[in-house]
Amino acid sequence: MAGISPSYSASQQLPTPSPFSFSSTPARAGWSSSPPVHLSTLVLRFVMLVLSFVSALSLANPPKSKGQRTSSFNESSKLTYCFIVSIVVFVYSAFQLFKGVCDISYRGILISDKFSDYLSFTLDQMVAYLLISSSSLGIEAIRQAETASPLWKAAIISVSMSFAIFLVIAICALISGYKLCKRIIW
Amino acid sequence: MAGISPSYSASQQLPTPSPFSFSSTPARAGWSSSPPVHLSTLVLRFVMLVLSFVSALSLANPPKSKGQRTSSFNESSKLTYCFIVSIVVFVYSAFQLFKGVCDISYRGILISDKFSDYLSFTLDQMVAYLLISSSSLGIEAIRQAETASPLWKAAIISVSMSFAIFLVIAICALISGYKLCKRIIW
């Protein structure tokens, strides 16, 4: 944008106003305040909350059958990392859910819209990378764990949940990236 | 955008044309054809190429001191994964570098601009996730390897390079995401 000289801009002016050029303000207002987008984001965040809870729970309380010794995720540093990431995702989802509800109830009072867009974009990206990192180590933990042991089952559940959360957060990251981009461009 | 009724759009029309509304077409043309952005992207891709080459080389030929036995990254599945990812990043950087040069020389003849934006955005994201995943396993390999062994040194070099490449590709992903977003919005 910096490379455009004023004369070039002026020479390209359209003779009649384009409908697109004037719809800019309503379009932004429509996007950030439209209930369907807000609601679908809330639903996605809620799904993340539930999945991360299941992931953390499966590691904290591995499913064991009769006669098998009790084991804990503390035995493996990789599974401890997976557990911590699940908790982080759970807390983040709860925060986003809370923020989403606050946005609908008290529009822009708690956090300004601009800061909220930057925050969501950055945190979504970071959480997505954390999830991929923990899933990689989780898969390694599955490979190394004894087959059909409680920890093995717990790790499989946790990694599956992590992948599911990753897909959900990828959609959230696309939405928040699009919102941020729109804010920067306009 | 779908939620905006025509009457609302019309009632919000500005009395005088805004300079921003008319600069839309030149802005896009300026962004996608401006040499500074193209050149800086090319430089970033070249840095990625060099760093991924160093990363792959350090794993393929671990630095060894006198008296130490020869070791190979094949001994550890994690390091094999890191090596494969380095090669993938190397090939991808070479492809992007080639595409960038072609874009400057034969504008939009080889790949259409639209397809190119979608492709760059998707592949940048995927390569960034691959890098984070391989770095996580690389760190685990460093923890498990014998301290000061050739493979330990090689893994440290490779993981450092992976993080550096990740930072570079994060910038590239931001640029390609912004370009794609601009294309969708206009």
UniProtKB/TrEMBL annotation, chains A, B:
Pfam families: CASP_dom. One of its GO terms (cellular component) is plasma membrane. The keyword Cell membrane applies. Residues 1-21 are annotated as: Disordered. It is found in: Cell membrane. The keyword Transit peptide does not apply. InterPro entries: CASP_dom (IPR006702). It is a multi-pass membrane protein. The chain crosses the membrane at residues 42-60, 81-98, 151-178. Residues 1-14 have a biased composition (Polar residues). It comes from the Eukaryota. Residues 36-147 form the Casparian strip membrane protein domain. Keywords: Cell membrane, Membrane, Transmembrane, Transmembrane helix. Belongs to the Casparian strip membrane proteins (CASP) family. Homodimer and heterodimers. PANTHER family: CASP-LIKE PROTEIN 4A4. This is CASP-like protein. It comes from Trapa natans.
